[in-house]
Amino acid sequence: MKILGILGSQSQTGITAQMLAQVLDHVSPGVEVERVFLEDYQIHPAGVKEDNDLDELVAKLAASDVWVWAAPTYWRGISGIMKKFLDCLRPKLVYIKANGDTIPGDFKNKHYLTLTNCYASTTENWLTGVTDETFKTVDRVMTAAGVIKVGEIVCPNTLKLEQLPLKKQQLCAHYGPKISHQERKDDSTMKRYLQLFVMIAVMAFLTMGIQQLLRNLMPWWNFWLNYVSFTLIFFVLLAVILHFVTFVKHRRR
Questions:
Q1: Domain locations in the chain?
Q2: Is 168 buried (19+), middle (13-18) or exposed (0-12) by CB count in 10 A?
Q3: What CATH number should be reported for the domain whose range is 2-179?
């Protein structure tokens, strides 16, 4: 088992580097760890320049079971050197068909963890998603390559911050043992169907309960009132739940 940490920042001692160090320093005993500081390498698309370390980095990725991507968020996006590295990796991570579509390449079913940070406050990041595009960039590339996501960590409010906050240190350290044990990609289809069934059952129960209260208040209740009220109440409950799941629950802090 080997874990590769890829640091795509300008400093080897900054907050991004500290986040990566906390993860890698707490992996399970016996797990091999290697760190890569992208600024130390010449990274160019294959065949563009002779002085190119891309193949060396690809070999390191191939020899590792888990990748930890660590890059700060600049201007609501991933750092330039990390983006350049991911761009150069495209023909290595996926097979490109004649029509331009891609299919996962040789790295399929490896695992990855993403780390980032930003100057924005916790509240601003939670409300506006300052770091969202950084995670989405990595997720898009890894999904195309068939690499399985283990998790993500964000540390906001890093302006003038020299030491990673204790809470974030603990969170990063928590992921060390977690990524030390490669997991199979479970087929969660049945789980999702079960969650959908429970959600619909709860909404139907609440809707019928509200309708019963309305019947007691409205003696002229009929089929069409029953139908319209059920549709409206069910829709409102569904909208609230979907809003919570897609906006509130998944906001990054």
A1: 2-179, 189-248
A2: buried
A3: 3.40.50.360
